[in-house]
């Protein structure tokens, strides 16, 4: 049985509130504002079916007469008013942003989780085993670092789609995109974890675990992994912003998600076609949402990096 009782819960919450990390967060204006912005966008995306005025990708809810309605102005034909206006198909831009952010966040989180899992696993193996396996993995990582991540993601996405039958390409597009972004970003996790593992494996607690006959996998998972996760969390936070931008870039280029699975990048690509005809809001508001999301997550990553750095305390 656990020694943790309901009476201990307030004390645990109080200790968490009084911790150095919590104090650093609540005394940093940049972290507070970034946290609020990121939380609002994430909650809006998760709760999109509940708070969006309508599902903009359900043809039954669309009215073409509402197309190109400016923000906060009544439509000339229907009289309907939309906060952020409508696009060429009469879709509410506010609703499309909520649903598009939902897809972008899912791709971003899934790609970071995949890259982090792959990078941590290979980094632990390379740092713990050493020898030719370490050399091989790090040479592969060095070669991959010579290519820009977005070009590598484009290559992986194109090759993967070539092996998928045409009938399943649209349904599998989101998973192919996640794998493409994840495979292009695993190197930074692997290199950081490898370096930390090479330091940790020579410490006394690891040597003691080896003496008592602990299995190498148990040593890696229970002893070394918890001690190398600090830098990984920082990289993952910053990597989330980069993954969201990568997804938006691929979708903007027309090689990401299909129109049936819209993201912020897809909305920006659609809005770009109407920018010079006067319908600026179709591009401006999705672009502002992507900028706010990526910037807030990136600033949170910068704060977390500084907060976990013992030299800055």
UniProtKB/TrEMBL annotation:
Record bears the keyword Cell membrane: yes
Bilayer-crossing regions: 30-52, 105-128, 140-160, 172-193, 232-257, 280-304
A cellular component annotation (GO) from this entry: plasma membrane
SUPFAM superfamilies listed in its UniProt record: MetI-like
Compartments in which it is found: Cell membrane
Pfam entry (one): BPD_transp_1
InterPro entries for the chain: BP-dependent_transpt_permease, MetI-like, MetI-like_sf, OppC_N
GO biological process assignments: transmembrane transport
Membrane topology field: Multi-pass membrane protein
Family label: Belongs to the binding-protein-dependent transport system permease family.
The protein, known as: ABC transporter permease
Protein species of origin: Rhodobaculum claviforme
Lineage: Bacteria, Pseudomonadati, Pseudomonadota, Alphaproteobacteria, Rhodobacterales
């Amino acid at each position: 049985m656990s020694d943790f009782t309901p009476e201990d819960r307030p004390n645990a919450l109080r200790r968490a509130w009084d911790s150095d990390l919590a104090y650093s967060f609540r005394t940093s204006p940049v972290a507070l504002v970034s946290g609020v912005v990121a939380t609002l966008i994430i909650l809006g995306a998760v709760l999109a079916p509940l708070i969006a005025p309508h599902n903009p990708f359900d043809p039954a809810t669309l009215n073409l007469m509402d197309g190109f309605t400016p923000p906060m102005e009544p439509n000339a034909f229907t009289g309907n008013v939309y906060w952020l206006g409508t696009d060429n198909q009469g879709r509410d831009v506010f609703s499309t942003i909520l649903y598009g952010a939902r897809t972008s966040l899912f791709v971003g989180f899934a790609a970071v989780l995949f890259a982090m899992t792959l990078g941590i696993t290979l980094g632990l193996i390379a740092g713990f085993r050493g020898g030719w396996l370490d050399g091989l993995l790090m040479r592969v990582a060095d070669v991959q670092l010579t290519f820009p991540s977005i070009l590598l993601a484009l290559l992986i996405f194109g090759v993967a789609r070539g092996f998928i039958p045409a009938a399943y390409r649209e349904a599998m597009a989101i998973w192919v995109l996640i794998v493409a972004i994840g495979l292009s970003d695993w190197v930074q996790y692997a290199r950081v974890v490898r370096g930390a593992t090479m330091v940790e494996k020579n410490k006394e607690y690891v040597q003691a675990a080896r003496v008592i006959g602990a299995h190498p996998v148990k040593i890696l998972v229970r002893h070394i992994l918890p001690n190398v996760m600090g830098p990984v969390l920082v990289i993952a936070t910053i990597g989330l912003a980069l993954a969201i931008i990568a997804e938006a870039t691929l979708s903007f280029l027309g090689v990401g998600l299909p129109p049936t699975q819209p993201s912020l990048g897809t909305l920006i690509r659609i809005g770009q076609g109407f920018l010079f005809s006067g319908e600026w809001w179709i591009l401006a508001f999705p672009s502002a949402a992507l900028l706010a999301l990526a910037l807030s997550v990136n600033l949170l990553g910068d704060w977390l990096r500084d907060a976990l750095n013992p030299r800055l305390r």
